[in-house]
Every structure is written in structure tokens, then in C-alpha cells.
Amino acid sequence: MRKIAVVGAESSGKTTLSQDLAQALGAAWLPEYARHYLATRATVAYGLADIVAIAQGQLAGEADPLRWQASGGSDWLVCDTNALVCMIWAEVRFGHCPAAIRACWQADDYVLHVLPTPDIAWEPDPLRENPEDREALFVRYRDALMQAGAAHVVVQGSPAARLQAVLAALGLPSPG
After folding, report:
1. Cα–Cα distance for residue pair 110/97, rounded to 1 Å
2. How many CB atoms lie within 10 A of CB 127?
3. Strands 152-155 and 28-30, how do they pair?
4. Using CA atoms, how far apart are residues 61 and 126, in angstroms rounded to an integer?
5. Which end of the chain has fewer beta carbons closer than 10 Å to its terminal beta carbon, N or C?
6. Angle at Cα 127 formed by Cα 65 and Cα 47, nearest 5°?
């Protein structure tokens, strides 16, 4: 299975892009585990242990085909986030990232990380917390990917432009 992860700041178009990419590749799509995890709780309040559980759940989902959606039979898996998101989330919210979260992200497990710029309008959501610092978060993600030597592409603009940029980075033709 060749994995692609779409990571980045809140409300930067990760879900739309990951779904569009999965469709273009005929790939399986793995939704963001944090949304499922937090939706099952009585409150949106959370602690560092919850972020550890979310990172572990996201990683477990990558290994469990029963959690994937709409596989077209290709050998691609497109992940709407991965444990890198949990690493940065823990650092921003709690000032540090536990080793248990760091252990869930191995940059070279992914053919490509896709990092959308926060150049689209913020959309309020009960689970979103950072409308004012999306650019700073984008820089954190970019720096983490570069520091890890992770294969990545930064995308911007319309959904179609973003998808075309990812397909180009993979050396694949744009959908017709």
C-alpha cells in the first residue's frame, strides 16, 4: 500500500483535497480519526492522553482496511491527516509532544505528504481552535516535514489547482 497524507492547519482544505485525491487515484480514503474520536465523547474538552489516543487510532486506521472508504482497488491509501498533525497539536496546545505520539509518525512510511496553504476562508467548526494562527501553524508543518526529510508538496489555490499540483508531484496526469 502506497500512502499519502494530507496534513496542515485547520480549515485549510485537507478533507476536500484528500477526498478529491482518493477519487482521482481510485484509492482508498481514510478519514480523520480525531473527528470520530471527539464525536463519541460527551464533551469536546480533551487532554494530552486524548491526543495520544487519536494518534494511535489514526495509525491503526492506516493498517485496517475496514476503516478505509471507497477503495477503487488501487494500491493507494489517502489519509486525511496522520500522526504529524497530533505531534504539532500536542506541541501547540500543551507545549510538548509525548514520545508515544512521536512513535506513531514515521515520515518515510508515506510516499508523499501534502501540505495545503491556509489560503482559503476559515470555516467555523466546534472542533476547530485556531482561526488566528493558521499561517504560523502552516510554517510549523512545513518546518517539521523539511526537518524530517519527508517527501512533501505544498499546494495552494482552488481545489482543482491543489489536486493538479499533487498529481504532478506524483508524476501522474491530471484527470481529464
Report:
1. 21
2. 12
3. unpaired
4. 23
5. C
6. 85
- Residues 135, 107, 20: CA angle, nearest 5 degrees: 65
- Mean pLDDT of the region 41-67: 89
* The pLDDT of residue 70: 64
Mean pLDDT along residues 122-146: 80
Long-range contacts of 165-168 (CB under 8 A, 24+ apart): 166/4, 166/17, 166/21, 166/112, 166/114, 167/21, 167/24
- Report d(CA 88, CA 140) in Å as an integer: 7
Distant-in-sequence, close-in-space partners of 146: CB < 8 Å, separation ≥ 6: 152
Residue-level pLDDT at 122: 64
Summarize the confidence of residues 121-146 as an average pLDDT.
Answer: 79
First to last CA, the chain: 25
Distance (Å, whole) CA 15 – CA 32: 8
Read off the pTM: 0.92
